[in-house]
Structure formats: structure tokens, C-alpha cells
Amino acid sequence: MSDQLKMYSDKVMDHFLNPRNVGEIDNPDGLGKAGNPVCGDIMELSIRVENNVITDARFKTFGCGAAIATSSMVTELVRNRTVDEALTISNKAVAEALGGLPPIKMHCSVLAEEALRAAIDDFRKKS
Amino acid sequence: MDKIYLDNAATTPVAPEVVQAMLPFMSQVYGNASSIHSFGQEAKAAVERARDKVATLINAKPEEIVFTSGGTESDNWVIKGVAFARKDKGNHIITSAIEHHAVLETCAFLETQGFKVTLLGVDKYGLVDPDDVKKAITGKTILISIMHANNEIGTMEPIAEIGAIARGHGIYYHTDAVQTFGHCPIDVDELNVDLLSASAHKFSGPKGIGLLYIRKGTRIAPYLHGGDQERSRRASTLNVPGIVGLGRAVEIAQKEMESESLRQTALRDCLIDGLVSSIEESNLNGHPLKRLPNNANISIAYVEGEAMLLTLDMEGIGVSTGSACTSSSLEPSHVLAAIGLPVELAHGSLRFSLGRNSTRQEIERVLAVLPVIVKKLRAISPLYRSRA
Asked: Is residue A62 less than 8 Å (CB to CB) from chain B?
């Protein structure tokens, strides 16, 4: 099957089947939650921040293939970025980094962006 | 690795003998069944042989069978056709909340045209209560449409009772038998059915061909105009290869129905018992006994259906899910909602539907693979942790 005919890109499938950075950081510097079970996706993202740079990001997600893949990708994208840089990462950027998402799955990338913003908000409240 | 197809409620592989039966009608016997020359008459004879087989299978008369393009057309035709033909009698239709969208969305369309629709609820097993049907009847009710068995959760409805109630009130009774036709015994007289929809590709026939049973004397307006085919009830050149394929599939069904039903029921129960016992916090949806021989619908807590479906697909196993994430509406299955299943569990539902090619080895492989997949996805799930 050609890549265009598949629902998900190879990169999405790779991040879904082999998600990076699964888990929780103990006593995180920032913790963000997004989504709800009614919609069928929930993401929790915890971050470690040192000198205003995100040095670690871990996630747990209940959701479909796209939700898990975008969660995994966002943890990769924020690493070694300053908090301000991380705030510029949009859901579109996450989707593009995955080689694109089907239009109907774009809302899953919003979940990743919202969890990231929530984690950074939490970090700023704490610091 | 051999692939394992457990989505026979979506569609079945066409039986090789059906393909063989169809082939001559795509090459040598190409006549239009409406033509009076020998080319046409040869095609017409094949169509009528198929019609006889269908009629025999459900204890109907051949002239009561009309070939259509499939279940969706049959459902659309029944509801709109009866509404048109009987609008002088009334404007009220009774159906259930768990019908196929071909019924529900057609009823919703009629509501925009001045018709009234009562959607009956179901119990936790998905059963319609015949008493609810009785209570919903008004002086203006013209049609009752309750499916024979539900396509998602497999529950078999008490349609003989519902049909008897309809008959007692002089109301037409239609059943969508797309999931049961060719799989479960159907006698239109015993079931008190006036109208019945079926589709060939759900029982080893080809796609694009189905039928509507119309009891003699039932008034229904044509859906397609523009020709006098099918005794002027449905215009359109007859799909001869499709009809021949449907007829051959009916023959197979007639021969194998009893043994396949027993064989698949045993495999189904093995799958249900195996999954529910090996995966904690999983449960069966639909009625434990009054269910299709080939359907197992399981909800698994803390994990999402599409994620399980995709991972099973990587293992070569094809199933379906009631999760919103595979639908374009982003809402979970209306059937799972109607049985009162919490949304989180509806998102974590999987439907396995067996077929005549399903084997015990395949079921054993699913039982070996799925618990591992669930464990992996639960390890990622924040819901699973917060439960502890």
C-alpha cells in the first residue's frame, strides 16, 4: 500500500507503536493535563526545568493512535528548549513533525499542545 | 504470518463458489434481463432461479423478493416508500435507538418532511421491550421498524412478538435482517414480517447487491423510477452477476447454516470467555445468549479502541471498534450509548465478528495477543494509574 493511501504516516505509526518518554517525572517542575474521557483522549505531561530549559518531559495518554503519537512527539520536541521556545510549539508543528495527520485526527494534536501549555503554566505558577 | 479476519459483520470474503457462479454472467451471458431476445432471456432465467432460492430460504413467494443494491437502499426504500404510500393513513413511525444509520438517518430525514418518529430505548443488553412498542402505537402509526439483530453488539430482538403486535394493529412491520440473513433461520410468516432488508456481502456474496422482501399486498411507493423492472417496483437494469452471486450464496447458507451456526457459536463463546477471564475489567456487550452466533463485543477499561485496533492490525488481526476515534462524527457508538455503557468504556470497545473461514487456531491467537496489547496500552494510560 502506498504511503498516501495509509491512514497514518510511518512516523505516526512508529511513535504510536514505540512511544518515546512514557511515564511520569517524580516531583515534576510542571504538570499539565488535557482532554477528557468523554472525548476519548486524556494526556498528562510532566516536565523537568533547569535554568529555564526543559531537560526532561514524560507523558501518559489514553487515546487513539494519533493521540499517543502526538504525545510522544511533543515530548521529543520540547527537550532542551527554553520554556519560551517550547511555548511556540503549535499543534501544527507537532503534526508536521510526524509527517502529517489525517484531517479528522488534527484535534489529537491540539491535545498535545494543550497539555504542554498546561505544564508550562503549572511550572510558572510554582516558580 | 497468516492474517486473521474477524470483521465479518463489516463484510465477508466472497466464497470461491460464488465467484465461479458469477463469472459467466460477466462474460458469456451478458444480456439485459429485460430484453426479450435469447441473450436477455438467458440472463432473466438466471435471475429468476436466484429469486426462487431467496424465497425458499425465508418461506416467501418469489414475486415478494425485489433485488436492490444492498441493505442501505432496502432500508431507505422501505421507510420512505411506506411513508409516501401511507401518508393518507398517518405520519408516525416507530423504530429503536440502536438501528443502523440507514434506518435512523432516513427517519431523521422524514422528520424534516412532517413525519413523527418514536425512537424506542433498549435495556442494558440492547433488547427492545415489545410492551414499549405497544405503548408507542398511535392512531397515526404507519410503520414499525426494529432490526432482527444488532450489527454492533449482536443482540437478537424479539421480532416475532413485535411483528404480531404490528399485525394486530394493521401496521406494517419491517426488519433490517442484514446481520441475520443467511446466518440465522428466517421464516417471514413465523416472524410476522411484512418487509425485510438483506445484503449479499454479509453472507459470502458480492457487494452491491441485496434485496427487499415485500409481503404481497403491502403498499410501498417505488424508490427508483424510470423502468418497469422488478414488476415496476424498482427501475434499473438488473445486476445479473450480483443477483447470481447472491443466489449462490443463499444456496451455501441453506446448506451450512445449522452447522456453521453451532461451530461459530462455540468459537464465539471461547473468545468471549477467554478475553473476559484473561483481561481484568473487561466485559461483554450485548445479550449473553440472545446474540448472533458470530458476534463478540467486548469493552476494555482504560484503553482506547482505535489504539487496540491498530496494534491488532500490526499483528495481522482485523477487528472493529465502537470508539469515536474511527468515526467521522467523533462520537462513540450510538448503540453502546443506548445500552447505557459509560462513554469511557464505549471508547474502549472492540467488535470481533467471525465467519465461515474462522478457526479455533485464530481465536487462540487473539487470546494470546490481545491481553499483551492491553497491558502495553494500559502502561501508557493515565486512567489506569489513577485507578490504583
From this structure: yes
**pLDDT tens track of chain B, all 388 residues?**
689 999 999 999 999 999 999 999 999 999 999 999 999 999 999 999 999 999 999 999 999 999 999 999 999 999 999 999 999 999 999 999 999 999 999 999 999 999 999 999 999 999 999 999 999 999 999 999 999 999 999 999 999 999 999 999 999 999 999 999 999 999 999 999 999 999 999 999 999 999 999 999 999 999 999 999 999 999 999 999 999 999 999 999 999 999 999 999 999 999 999 999 999 999 999 999 999 999 999 999 999 999 999 999 999 999 999 876 656 666 789 999 999 999 989 999 999 999 999 999 999 999 999 999 999 999 999 999 665 5
Name the residue range of residue B198's domain.
16-252
Q: In one letter, which amino acid is B122?
A: V
Active site residue B325: yes
Helix axis angle, B305-314 to A65-78, nearest 10°: 90
Task: Tell which CATH classification among 3.10.50.30, 3.90.1010.10, 3.30.210.10, 2.40.30.60 matches the domain A3-126.
Answer: 3.90.1010.10
> Helix, strand, coil proportions of chain A in percent (round to 5)?
50, 25, 30
User: What ipTM does this complex have?
Assistant: 0.93
Minimum CA–CA partner of A72 in chain B: B380
Grid cell at residue B53: 432460492
- State which of B204, B228, B252 marks the end of a domain: B252
- Contact call for A40 and B385, based on CB within 8 A: no
* One domain, residues B32 and B173: yes
Q: State whether residue A66 is helix, strand or coil.
A: helix
Task: Indicate if B210 and B303 belong to the same structural domain.
Answer: no
Cβ-based contacts of B341 with chain A (< 8 Å):
none
Instruction: Give me the CATH number covering residue B177.
Output: 3.40.640.10
- Three-state DSSP state, A54: strand
pTM of the model: 0.95
Contact by Cβ (8 Å): B296, B271 = yes
- A and B: number of Cβ contacts within 8 A: 72
DSSP secondary structure of B247-270: HHHHHHHHHHHHHHHHHHHHHHHH
**Which residues from A are below 8 Å from B320, CB to CB?**
none
